Amino acid sequence: MKATIERAVLLKSLGHVQSVVERRNTIPILSNVLIEAVDGGGLKLMATDLDLQIVETVDAQVEQAGATTVSAHTLFDIARKLPEGSQVSLEAAEGKMAVNAGRARFNLSTLPRDDFPVIAEGELPTTFELPAATLRDMIDKTRFAISTEETRYYLNGIFVHVSDDDQPVMKAAATDGHRLARYTIARPDGAEGMPDVIIPRKCVAELRKMLDELDGTVEVALSDGKIRFGLGTAVMTSKLIDGTFPDYNRVIPTGNDKLLKIDPRAFEEGVDRVATIATEKTRAVKMGLDTDKITLTVTSPENGTASEEVAGAYGADGFEIGFNARYLLDILGQLHGDDIEVHLADAAAPTLIRENDKAAALYVLMPMRV
């Protein structure tokens, strides 16, 4: 194999694929990236951790077609440190790959491409397209609520499903048992009848990184076991979480009759300020609701107390309720507009937070005892 590629093109592509590769691997070949020089020009780069795989095809001058695998992180670090604007020559033969650019020379060990595992996609019967911007929003508005508890593995991702509400919709939801985030869009053409799927946390993170550089649309194809995203020059394939996502609709309150309308930025800044003295153990911020004002209080045995009043439109009976400050800030960070709706019932019931009843995003937060 022999090919020449621009350093910037190589670096960008390696940046996409190498982040899939785990730093510690018991199987040596999983530390490698597969590089294939294709007849007629072009390099194909591929990396996998057996659950997630990214393949990207980039422009390159190919003198001799062929393929090999080389340490992904090492090659990425080399590409990062090569001079800007340089042409990088990659030449593989007899278990070694020479990487040359300008006066720099590297000779890296390789492993045979035949040992490199590939995720077999099988049939992916459901296919549809989504604008990259819509997919970005869908991820940003929900992923902070993904659980990191390995024991409840079925919560370690974003649940995507279609349903017929007033009109056909697609919903993305994530929860860790303390908070729930849901985002709703119109159902894309081709998604009718799709199976309910849980997209794993790592796939969501890698996908989100690649969406930053993408305009236009993303092609999505899925079955009940795998999902594939077509992202311009790259294709990402992931196994889905094999589990049943709980019926989250049961925790979305419908009878919360106390309504607070408040500026999300003033609310967020107030919570952030009083939470400065909160410790890991006492992340609780207490909200005292009174006519048209909220008093935010944090009490920490080690650090003392903090309180701040925030203006808000509230006309129901006054009461106190506590929330985890970090969870509240995560939700407020996703809400925009001049004011938001906080629907409350009492100090023990889940609270519903949204921009308005037409908003695509909806959040539920469980209170804390304070």
Automatic annotation (TrEMBL):
Subcellular location: Cytoplasm
Listed Gene3D superfamilies: 3.70.10.10, DNA Polymerase III, subunit A, domain 2
InterPro entries per the UniProt record, alphabetical: DNA_clamp_sf, DNA_polIII_beta, DNA_polIII_beta_C, DNA_polIII_beta_cen, DNA_polIII_beta_N
Function comment: Confers DNA tethering and processivity to DNA polymerases and other proteins. Acts as a clamp, forming a ring around DNA (a reaction catalyzed by the clamp-loading complex) which diffuses in an ATP-independent manner freely and bidirectionally along dsDNA. Initially characterized for its ability to contact the catalytic subunit of DNA polymerase III (Pol III), a complex, multichain enzyme responsible for most of the replicative synthesis in bacteria; Pol III exhibits 3'-5' exonuclease proofreading activity.
PANTHER family with a match to the protein in the record: BETA SLIDING CLAMP, DNA POLYMERASE III SUBUNIT BETA
Subunit structure: Forms a ring-shaped head-to-tail homodimer around DNA.
Name the record gives this protein: Beta sliding clamp
Source organism of this protein record: Parasphingopyxis marina
